[in-house]
Specification:
The complex is a heterodimer of chains A (349) and B (319).
Chain A lengths: L1 H13 L1 H20 L6 H9 L2 H15 L7 H15 L4 H27 L5 H19 L9 H7 L3 H8 L17 H19 L1 H11 L1 H6 L4 H27 L6 H17 L11 H20 L7 H17 L1 H4 L9
Helix pairs in contact in A: 2-15, 4-10, 4-13, 4-14, 4-15, 5-6, 5-7, 5-13, 5-14, 6-7, 6-13, 8-9, 11-13, 14-15
Chain B lengths: L1 H6 L4 H25 L8 H26 L7 H15 L4 H22 L4 H20 L10 H8 L1 E2 L2 E2 H19 L1 H11 L1 H6 L4 H26 L12 H10 L11 H20 L4 H19 L8
Helix pairs in contact in B: 2-13, 3-8, 3-11, 3-12, 3-13, 4-5, 4-6, 4-11, 5-6, 5-11, 7-11, 8-9, 9-11, 12-13
Classes of the chains: A mainly alpha (349), B mainly alpha (319).
Protein name (chain B): ABC transporter permease
Subcellular location (chain B): Cell membrane
Keywords (chain B): Cell inner membrane, Cell membrane, Membrane, Transmembrane, Transmembrane helix, Transport
Chain lengths: 349, 319
C-alpha cells in the first residue's frame, strides 16, 4: 500500500502540469454547472461536448508533433480538408456512409503521412514544412468545396450529436426504453466518441516502442539515435496519427454541422488554439514531456472558458481578450519557477 | 574549383536559387501574357514598381520577424500588432498618429521580450497569447466593426504617394532594410543575435547578455510590424479588423525561403529581401493568370516545399 502511494506521488509530481489542468477543469466544470440554470443535466453536457469535439481532436493531433519537439501548423488545414471531403461523401445508403467516413479518415491519415515523409526524408523543419503542406491542404479543400455547404446524412447527424438513447432509437438496435439501458442512456455520444478514440488509440500507441521513441526524440534526438531507436518510423507514425486525429475532428464537424466549409481563417484559428490547448494540458513545446490526454483536458478547458461567457453574460467581444490573458497568465505562472533557478545556464536548452 | 566554392558560400546558395526562381516566375508570367494578350506588362518598370510598392508591407513585417527567427524564436503576434498599431494611429490622428502606432509596436515588443527572454516562456505560445489579447483589446475598442477614423494625410502619403517617381512605401521599405542590414552586419547587437541564435548558453558564457538581446530583437520585430500596419492603414485609407492576418505566414515563408534557418543562428538579410520579392511576384503572376484561390494555395505550398527540398534540408542525425 505505501508502495502504491509512493508511485502515485511520483506520477503526480512528474505530471504536475497535467494534474493542475485536470483539477482546474473539474473545479471550473462543477462551478459552471452550479451557475447554469439547467446545470448537471444531460442536455447541457451534450451541448458542451458537441462544441468541443473538433478542437479536442485537433489538439490531440497537435500533441504528437509537439512531443517530437516540432510543431504541426497544418492540423487545422487537414481538419478542414477532412471536413470538406466528408461533406461530399458522407451521405446515401448506410454502406456509402460508412465508406465515405473511411475515405475521409483515410484522406487525413494520408495527408499526415505526407507531412511525415516531407519531414523525415525531406529533412525540412516540421514547422515550416507543415506551414507549406497546410497551404496545400487548404487548396485541396477549396477545390472540393469552393462554397460552404454539403449534404451529410441527417439521421447520422442526429444520432451522433445526442445521447445514447437517441443513437439507439434512431437506428433501432434494440428497445431504447429497456430497463437495463436506462442508467447509461443519458450519456452523450460526442463524449463517448472523444473518450473511446482518444484513450483507445493513444494509450496503446504510447506503450509501443514507436510511441516511446516519440518521447525519446523529444528529449534528445541524438540520444535516441545512439540507442538504436527507430527514429524515422516514430516520426512518420507521429505525423500520420496527427493527420488521423485531425481528420476525426473534421469528420465530426461535418456530421455536426451537416456541411463543409473551406475557411482559411477558421483553419488557422483551429491550429493556433490547438497549440494553446496542448500547452495548457501540460505538454512541453520543447518536446518529450506530456501527452494526448493532457491536450484533451487543455482543449476542454479552453472551451469551458468560452461557455462561461454565455452563462455570465459577459460581452462576447471581450472573449478573445480574456482567453489571451488567461493563456498568458497560465504560461507565465508555469514559468515563474525559472526565476528561482540558481544556475542560469540551466535555462538555456 | 576551389574559387567557385569560396565564391558561393552555403549562405549564398538559397539567395541565388531564390533569385533564379524569381526570373523563372517572371518568364512564365510573360509567356502567359504573350500567349493570351500579346503584350508583356510584367517586364515593364511600372509593373515591377507597383509590385514592390504593395510588397513593402510584407517586406517590412518580414524584416522584423527575421531578427526574431535568427534567435531561434518566432513572433506570432505580428497580425494584431499590425492591426493594433494601425487602429491606434487612426484613432489618435493628427501628427501623433505615426508615433502612437510605433509606440504600440514598441510596447508589444517589450512585453514579448520580457515573457520570452526573462520569464523563459516559449515564444510560440507567449506571442500567440499576446496576439489573442490584443485582438480582444482591439475588438473591444472598436465594438467589432471597422473604425470610422481615417488615416492621416502623412500616413497616406507614406503608403501610396511617390517621391521623384519612386513610391514612398518603397522608400520606407528601403530605409528599414538598410537599418536592419546595418544592425545585423555592423553592430554588437547584431552579432549577439547570431551568437545567441546559434547557442544561447555559449553566448551567455562569452559575456553576452542574452536576455537583453532577446528583448531587443522582439522590440525590433514589434516596431517593424507596427510600421507595416500604419503604412497599410495609409494604403487602404483606414484600419480594419484582421488587416494583419494575411501577413504572418507569408512573412515567415519569405524569411525561410531567403535561407534563414528557422531554428536560428544562420541567415542573411539580402535573402529575406529576395524571399519577399519572390512571394510577392508569385502571388501577382498567379492572379494575372486568374488562378482560383484553391490553385494558388496549392502552388504556394508546393513552391515552398520544393525550394526547401533544394536548399533547406537539415543535417541527418548521425551522432
Amino acid at each position: 500500500m505505501p508502495e502504491l502511494k509512493k508511485n502515485m506521488r511520483l506520477l503526480i509530481s512528474q505530471n504536475i502540469g497535467f494534474t493542475a489542468a485536470t483539477i482546474i477543469l473539474v473545479v471550473l466544470w462543477l462551478l459552471y454547472n452550479f451557475l447554469h440554470p439547467r446545470g448537471f443535466s444531460s442536455a447541457v453536457l451534450i451541448q458542451n461536448t458537441n462544441e468541443s469535439v473538433a478542437i479536442v481532436f485537433v489538439a490531440i493531433a497537435q500533441t504528437l508533433p509537439v512531443l517530437l519537439g516540432g510543431l504541426d501548423l497544418s492540423v487545422g488545414a487537414v481538419m478542414t480538408l477532412a471536413n470538406c471531403v466528408a461533406s461530399v461523401l458522407v451521405s446515401g445508403t448506410p454502406f456509402q456512409i460508412i465508406l465515405g467516413m473511411m475515405i475521409t479518415l483515410l484522406t487525413g491519415t494520408a495527408f499526415g503521412l505526407l507531412n511525415g515523409l516531407v519531414v523525415v526524408y525531406g529533412r525540412i523543419q516540421p514547422i515550416i514544412a507543415t506551414l507549406a503542406t497546410g497551404s496545400i491542404a487548404i487548396g485541396l479543400a477549396l477545390f472540393i468545396r469552393p462554397q460552404p455547404g454539403g449534404d451529410v446524412d441527417g439521421d447520422l447527424g442526429w444520432a451522433l450529436t445526442n445521447d445514447l438513447y437517441e443513437l439507439v432509437a434512431t437506428y433501432g438496435w434494440w428497445d431504447a426504453d429497456a430497463g437495463w439501458f436506462a442508467p447509461i442512456s443519458w450519456f452523450p455520444v460526442p463524449l463517448l466518441i472523444i473518450l473511446v478514440i482518444s484513450f483507445g488509440i493513444w494509450i496503446p500507441f504510447k506503450r509501443t516502442i514507436t510511441g516511446r521513441t516519440v518521447y525519446a526524440i523529444g528529449s534528445s534526438e541524438s540520444a535516441a539515435f545512439m540507442s538504436g531507436l527507430p527514429i524515422d518510423r516514430a516520426k512518420l507514425a507521429a505525423f500520420t496519427l496527427a493527420g488521423f486525429f485531425a481528420a476525426c475532428g473534421g469528420l465530426y464537424l461535418a456530421i455536426q454541422t451537416s456541411s463543409g466549409n473551406a475557411d482559411i481563417s477558421q483553419a488557422g484559428s483551429y491550429t493556433l488554439n490547438s497549440i494553446a490547448a496542448v500547452v495548457l494540458g501540460g505538454t512541453s513545446l520543447l518536446g518529450g514531456i506530456g501527452g494526448a490526454i493532457g491536450s484533451l483536458v487543455g482543449a476542454l478547458l479552453l472551451r469551458l472558458l468560452a461557455f462561461y461567457f454565455r452563462i455570465l453574460s459577459i460581452d462576447p467581444l471581450l472573449q478573445p481578450l480574456i482567453e489571451g490573458v488567461v493563456l498568458l497568465v497560465a504560461v507565465s505562472l508555469g514559468a515563474l519557477r525559472t526565476l528561482q533557478t540558481k544556475n542560469r545556464l540551466r535555462l538555456f536548452r | 574549383m576551389n574559387n567557385i566554392t569560396t565564391l558561393f558560400s552555403s549562405e549564398d546558395k538559397p539567395i541565388l536559387i531564390a533569385s533564379g526562381f524569381i526570373v523563372v516566375i517572371l518568364l512564365i508570367g510573360t509567356a502567359y501574357t504573350l500567349a493570351t494578350q500579346g503584350t508583356m506588362p510584367l517586364l515593364t518598370a511600372n509593373y515591377l514598381m507597383l509590385q514592390l510598392q504593395s510588397g513593402a508591407f510584407l517586406g517590412i513585417a518580414a524584416a522584423g520577424i527575421m531578427v526574431v527567427i535568427l534567435l531561434g524564436h518566432i513572433d506570432l503576434s505580428i497580425p494584431w500588432t499590425m492591426t493594433a498599431a494601425a487602429m491606434m494611429a487612426t484613432t489618435v490622428g493628427s501628427e501623433l498618429a505615426i508615433p502612437t502606432g510605433i509606440a504600440v509596436g514598441l510596447a508589444v515588443g517589450v512585453i514579448n521580450g520580457l515573457g520570452v527572454g526573462y520569464l523563459r516562456v516559449p515564444s510560440m505560445i507567449f506571442t500567440l497569447g499576446l496576439d489573442s489579447a490584443m485582438r480582444g483589446l482591439m475588438v473591444a475598442h472598436t465594438g467589432g466593426y471597422a473604425p470610422a477614423d481615417q488615416a492621416t494625410p502623412l500616413m497616406r502619403y507614406l503608403a501610396s504617394g511617390d517621391f521623384l517617381g519612386i513610391p514612398m512605401s518603397l522608400c520606407v521599405w528601403t530605409a528599414v532594410s538598410v537599418i536592419i542590414f546595418l544592425i545585423l552586419r555592423k553592430t554588437t547587437f547584431g552579432k549577439s543575435i547570431y551568437a545567441t541564435g546559434n547557442k544561447e548558453a555559449a553566448a551567455y558564457l562569452s559575456g553576452i547578455r542574452t536576455r537583453r538581446v532577446i528583448l531587443g530583437a522582439f522590440v525590433v520585430s514589434g516596431v517593424c510590424a507596427a510600421l507595416a500596419g500604419v503604412l497599410l492603414a495609409g494604403y487602404s485609407a483606414k484600419a480594419y479588423q484582421g488587416m494583419g492576418n494575411p501577413f504572418l505566414l507569408p512573412a515567415i515563408a519569405a524569411v525561410v525561403l531567403g535561407g534563414t534557418h528557422i531554428l536560428g543562428g544562420k541567415g542573411r538579410y539580402v535573402g529575406t529581401l529576395v524571399g519577399v520579392i519572390l512571394i510577392v511576384l508569385l502571388n501577382s503572376v498567379l492572379s494575372i493568370m486568374q488562378m482560383p484561390e484553391a490553385g494558388r494555395q496549392i502552388i504556394y505550398g508546393t513552391v515552398i516545399i520544393c525550394m526547401l527540398l533544394v536548399y533547406g534540408r537539415g543535417q541527418k542525425i548521425s551522432s
